[in-house]
Sequence to fold (189 residues):
Amino acid sequence: MTTSLHADAVRALDSWTVADAGQEQLRLDYLDHLAANPDGLWRACLPAHITASAVVIDPAAGRVLLTLHPKVGLWLQMGGHCEPGDATLAAAALREATEESGIPGLELLTEGGGPVPVKLDRHQVRCAGKDRPENTHLDVQYVALAPAGAEALISDESLDLRWFGYDRLPELTDTSVRELVDLARGLVG
Fold:
C-alpha cells in the first residue's frame, strides 16, 4: 500500500493544474520531496512529510466547520497524517475529515471525475512532541462537502468543533485557513 499511496500522491500533484505562481512552486517542491523520499508521506519522514486535510463546508447553509486544534491553539480545517490503510491522498483527507468532524457522508469536491486538491500549505509544527524539533508539514488540502444540516460530533482530537458562517470566522484562525475557506466558498458558490 505504501508504494500505491506514494504513486497516487505523485499523480495527484503532477496532474493538478495551478494558476497561482506560489502554489505552483509549492506543487513542484512537494513533487521534489516525493521524488527524494519514498517514505515522504509518513510522519517518520523528517524533517518534512506530506499531510492531507479537508475544509468541511455546508454550502446550503453557507458555513464551514473548524476544529480548535489542541497543540496549535488555532481554529483549523480537519486533517493530519497519512496512514498505511489510505489508498489515496484524497482518501486520507476524507478519512481525517470524517474522523474529526463525526459527520458521515462527506464527499470531496471533484473536478474531471475525481477529487482534486484545491490548495497547498507548507507550515512548521511539532508533531513529534513539545520537546522535539519542529518539522514541516507539506499539506495537501481538499474541500469536503457536508450534507445539508449536518451535525458535527467532537472527537478527542479536538478541543472544540464549531460551524462558522463564511464571513464570521473566529479570530484565532490563521491566514492560510481564511484563504482556504475563501477558495472553497468560491468553488461551491
Summary: Helices lie at 2-15, 21-36, 89-101, 175-188.
